[in-house]
Amino acid sequence: MAAAAKLMDFERALELFEPVLGFEVHVELNTNTKMFSDAPNPANEKYHAAEPNTLIAPVDLGLPGAMPTVNETAIRSSISLGLALDCSIAESSRFARKNYFYPDLGKNYQISQYDEPIAYEGSVEVELEDGTLVTVPIERAHMEEDAGKLTHMGGATGRIQGAEYSLVDYNRAGVPLVEIVTKTIFGTDHRAPEVAKAYVSTIRDIVRSLGISEARLERGNLRCDANVSLRPRVAEGEEPAPLGTRTETKNVNSMRSVERAVRHEIQRQAQILADGGKIIQETRHWHEDTGTTSPGRPKSDADDYRYFPEPDLLPVQPAAELIEELRAALPEQPVARRRRLKTEWGFTDLEYQDVRNSDLVDVVEATIAAGTTPAAARKWWTGEISRLANAQDKDAVELIAPENVAALQRLVDDGTLTDKLARQVLEGVIAGEGTPQEVVDSRGLAVVSDDGALIAAIDEALAAQPDVMAKIKDGKVQAAGAIIGAVMKAMKGQADAARVRELILERAAQ
Question: What would be an example GO MF term here (predicted)?
């Protein structure tokens, strides 16, 4: 195993060097079929769990004579995304062949776009955790197809190094992609890692609001390649130093990892440069377990791919009326939406950030719309539901529908359930036992509100602890806690503790 790279202290690295960033984000579109064939699209949720090599067509395998046709829905989605990024939409764009050898791309070329992308010259505003706004310039957003997937077998790490052989799954070959390429990003300084995370998070929010992608990093629906280079600091008034050599950290699969990968590359490159070394222009692989990057392959330039126009596809020439139709349908921008929801919900910065960082904004909004308060929706989703999801290694949104969370809270609000009983009902709903009311009925979990039953339980508890009533009558009201606890235990937590306390004090006053 290679020795761990030496890292410079982050603050020291920023004293010596200016970080320069760039990002390439690939978005898998959730169309029903693939980009250039009628095979089902595994990026669509209903096809996600298909067996390997079952979602394929001759075009995806590069079979002789197979001819591509363009997916109209993918074009509409690509235009919508370009408009949401404030890009100009090309009157005419065309596909190109990007030539390289990969065993999971049967044609030995990728159909992409090169010098004539569908969208170009845009920008997106991202918000950092303290409310600072940063404008990220967009160079282009272009359409292309995805490659297949290799599974490396026989090694200890699941990577190609040390593997005995690899299996090829062509299900993903031909999945529609939009690649969003930023311009060079200057001036982020010590906030570079945070800007990286915020940018990818904003792209995720945009594509989800458009409804064009599941945008789940852990599934590869959204993939980020982070470009980082450093250039020496210069004295004020001097010409900026030339740009440094960049590295491209590939396919980082979580927001936190995007942030960590950029920080790591800044520290790694700074130490190399300070020691008199040179940065190699290459791709790098991110290792989540160690928080480090390792070399991939030398980074190719555009000329190395021998782009040329795709001869089997006509240029894409969207009508002006279509572009305006899609522009009119654009949803609220993520920054504006976040600020509006935070104000409407009355959340503090920390409360809203907790919901956002947990990727729960949409489901909390849906729960509120289903009839509960913002505070209750946040409590359930960031608390007990997230705890159960972590225990099952699932996403919280997979466990329960927002409508059932709202219904559960209504049972608490109307006194049918205590918080403790509500947690038991939640577990029953998640286990598939029905709606909250159905779980309450089948398990007999409703709070006992019959005063007669409560008084009987109180009398039994007082008989077992005869000195308690004397203490209460003597002014030591806190002594009632012992009786309340005994009643709750006897009634298996289904007594209304507040009502039990009232009845005990009424008895003491007699």
Answer: transferase activity
